[in-house]
TrEMBL record:
Naturally occurring in which organism (per UniProt): Aeromicrobium terrae
Keywords tagged on the record: Cell membrane, Membrane, Transmembrane, Transmembrane helix, Transport
PROSITE patterns xrefs: MFS (PS50850), SUGAR_TRANSPORT_1 (PS00216)
Name recorded for this polypeptide: MFS transporter
SUPFAM superfamilies: MFS general substrate transporter
Amino acid sequence: MNTQLETQDAPPARDSRWTALVVIAVAQLMVALDATVVNIALPSAQSALDFSDAERAWVVTAYTCSVAGLLLLGGRVADRFGRRRSFLVGLAGFAGASALAGAAPSLGLLIAGRALQGAFAAVLAPTALSLIAVTFTDGKERAKAFGVYGAVASSGAAVGLLVGGAMTEYAGWRWCLYINVAIAFAAFAVGSRVLPKGDGQQGGGIDVLSGALVTGGLAAIVFGCAQAADGWASISVVLPIVGGLAGVAAFLARQARMAQPLLPLFILTDRARIGAYLSVACAVVGSFGMFLMLTYHFQAVLGWSPVRTGLAFLPLSVAVSVGSFGLGSRLLPKVAPRTLVVPGLLVAATGLFLLSGLSPESSYLARILPAEVLLGIGMGCVFTPAISVATSAIDMRYAGVAAATANTFMQVGGSVGTAVLNSVAVSVTASAGVGAAAVVEGFATATTCAAVLLVAAATAAAALITKGE
């Protein structure tokens, strides 16, 4: 009896629980802001390290590939070795990976550092949620704690835009990565004293092979998509994509045979849940595509500073919050999820279609700002009901896996979508000639492709998401 109790996470002293929440929230903020921080810094990093437009997407996708492939494994690591221990190791690893990426003298090391960041983020994200659950056992306090966590997570993008712009402009792009070292060090120092202790679950292994199969498969698919600027029929495109699909298929086959799979396959047999997963994945394609293209449009074409670029993106982050909390959360109890998801995807697609007419002379207020607002509100209306569908009508023992799978689909959408859209933009620009007009034509074509994808996703969501009707 005593042995069993020793392996469970015990809440820390009552007066330190809220300090523990601050540590967890700060770590989540660090992970959340990292994506937008690096996006703002990307043009400066490309200039400093002298890598090509075709290669720039890897700075984003190296991170998202690792998170997507290892997120489910990260949750199992936390259960096996203990949440506190896993959280602290995740913090230390994320700090080390950030230092490596920040000091990188070449694109290869920058990509390696970003991939390691993603790997440790895949441990931090599920561990943070489970730490809140075991630290706050009272229902009201737990709701308050998760509310704080959600607010921090949703504000990460906006904070990242401001911090990324300021760091890039006044300290240099490398400090957008170095800042994580300071944040993680502070969180580690405090967290080692206040986080709940526990030894994890005794026995049971970590299915590293499954994590390697899905991560390697996804990375191969993204690699193939990134080579497509010269044509999709090229052997350098087809071979990695086929190999990647084989890796993902092997992962799924392995899950079907295992007694305790990382991903129970019955989660993917529910049509409404699949519709929700596809919806969030496609919505993320739109947001990642807009971020990448407009970052270069603002800085490389219009000559805006990183700070001005960050400020120009703020309406998008605000619109996502309005769509999610102001519309999605309030309307979800009153209407069917499909009633929010389908229009949300179409509204987001409309915002992307506005950018199909983008030119070097396009007005920010007349074209880009409305596009950001429409995309943000549409995405916000997709995420809340889609996550609700993904985690409903399922045994509570698997609710965490269902939610983690939704996050995985988001990261897959961000990875593959960024690679494909960047290849489209580079290919169109190369065929259009030289100069700003050719570059912007590539951006406009890529965002048009993303808009078409969102329309297709809306059609699929209308057919698949039938729960709550």
